[in-house]
């Protein structure tokens, strides 16, 4: 059975007019249920993750100043969120959902987190709506428990996974792959193990051709026994922060290919949602919803 992490804390509100669409975390579960993609049995409520697990990745000084709301104005401005206790708390449950999802993925092949994909969070700072890095913490957790020995992170959000790349730059057990807009944020890129920068306006055919030639090659080269997939839908043409020109159909085909490739190689995959900033909230929900639909089709039908 497909297992999906969702906690009510995911939908905590931001000030009216904020460009980060928090509403999607409330609307997406409703969409999945009303369209028959999932049932209530598919959802699980994650637990809050403990400090000791977070500190395997995040800097102690940064983390404690985050908890006590003592970041300075420059740090808060870099994050883009108001610094609030509920949003810090939310980050702990998101990581909990990703870690618990890893365990379900090992049992069922795949799991998804309604939130997460906080790939701009560095060990010692937050950036771009990301306070704590859920997939990085989960990857380190699996390695520390010796659940896996080699991890591949597949980041297909339109923005480079700079925080994740930096966190694992010297870790031979984690291979970071980011395929993103070359001229988009972050304007100073970190060095992933493999970066593929796409030109503005890249459409479905080029995007999918590159992905379909790259991912199987990486799996054969890296030989991972676990994959983290960041399935941002900000690659869509009308995304206000994206600059690529993919369609809903192309985005769904992307997800289907990633999932089919993981299944064919017998590699469990944990999926976090990542970005989506279209002015049309219905398009964001449909695009994210297709990710769950593709997961059901590939793994459970």
TrEMBL record:
CDD domains: HDAC_classIV. It holds the Pfam family Hist_deacetyl. SUPFAM superfamilies: Arginase/deacetylase. Keywords: Hydrolase. InterPro entries: HDAC_classIV, HDACs, His_deacetylse_dom, His_deacetylse_dom_sf, Ureohydrolase_dom_sf. GO terms for biological process: epigenetic regulation of gene expression. Residues 18-280 form the Histone deacetylase domain. It comes from the Bacteria. The keyword Hydrolase applies. GO terms for molecular function: histone deacetylase activity; hydrolase activity. Belongs to the histone deacetylase family. This is Histone deacetylase.
